[in-house]
Amino acid sequence: MRPLLRLSSEEARAIDTVVFDLDDTLLDHGRLTEVAYSALFRLREAGLALVASTGRPAGWAQLFARQWPLTAALAENGAVAWARGDDGRYRLDDPLPLAERARRRAALREIAAQLLERFPALGLADDNDARHTDMALDIGEHRRAAPEDVARARALATSLGARTFASSVHMHLTFEGYDKATGFARWARAARGDDPTRALKRAAFLGDSGNDAPAFAAFGLTFGVSNVASHVGKLTVPPRYVASRPMGAGFAEIADALVARRG
User: Fold this and answer.
1) Residues 73-112: pLDDT tens digits?
2) Cα separation of 112 and 14, whole Å?
3) Hey, how many other C-beta atoms are within 10 angstroms of the C-beta on 26?
4) Cα distance between residue 94 and residue 101, in whole Å
5) Cα atoms in the Cβ-side hemisphere of radius 13 Å centred on 227
6) What is the pLDDT of residues 123-169, one digit of tens each?
7) Is 254:237 a contact under the CB 8 Å cutoff?
8) What is the arrangement of strands in the sheet containing 134-138, beginning at the earlier edge strand?
9) Which of 28, 46, 141, 143 lies 20 to 30 Å from 193 when distance is taken between CA atoms?
């Protein structure tokens, strides 16, 4: 990972979109600071489209899309997206019909119940009622689950047919095939008519943890806030550049570097 001082003007000018994680990247332990929020406006004023990409629920993403200076908000690790249409209305982009979505949610609840019975250190996240495609278990937000318990729980969930992601706060159970990279590529094609490969190449990604691993490997330009250092062992491909500061302050540091290099 390189320091931000080595970011070139050519790299900063080659992107048209900034995609970013929320928890412990833009947010400080779930809180949005003034410096991080202001950085969003500076990036937009520099001509960049902004896309939030989070493991948080679709219900939260609707609020972000409506109130923040965003082009879109991808939720539940890329499975669904909220964005404003040409008519000014905000719509949820979910590729599955409601009946199939309900069936999958019921099956995920059964798997979650088995995991919680086996691993009592884990608990249901308090945002599940706003979710559409996955179930989230609290491993670091209000609880502190041991890494070995999380690893064993993920292995059991996989044996029961679910895919899993783990962030700094949640372990996610899903049947969806998307992650933060493929979810963005699908949205970019559906909403903007972009070629998926080109969309990824022309976008930067900012993240901090293990569930950002597919994005660090796929996006053309990648950044980590400084707290990514504790998760580097979980990343096949680390971010190309790393901020000197953590969380929201690191996000603002990266934003400042991009804006400055773009002139």
Assistant:
1) 999 999 999 999 889 899 999 989 999 999 999 999 999 9
2) 43
3) 28
4) 9
5) 21
6) 999 999 999 999 999 999 999 999 999 999 999 999 999 999 998 89
7) no
8) 123-124, 134-138, 170-174, 163-166
9) 46
Q: Which amino acid is at 129?
A: D
Domain ranges of the chain: 2-92+178-262, 98-174
Sheet holding 72-75, edge to edge: 2-3, 241-242, 221-224, 203-207, 17-20, 49-53, 72-75, 80-84, 90-93
From 197, 199, 138, 198, select the one nearest 170 (Cα to Cα).
138
CB atoms inside a 10 Å sphere around CB 202: 18
Structure tokens, 230: 């504790």
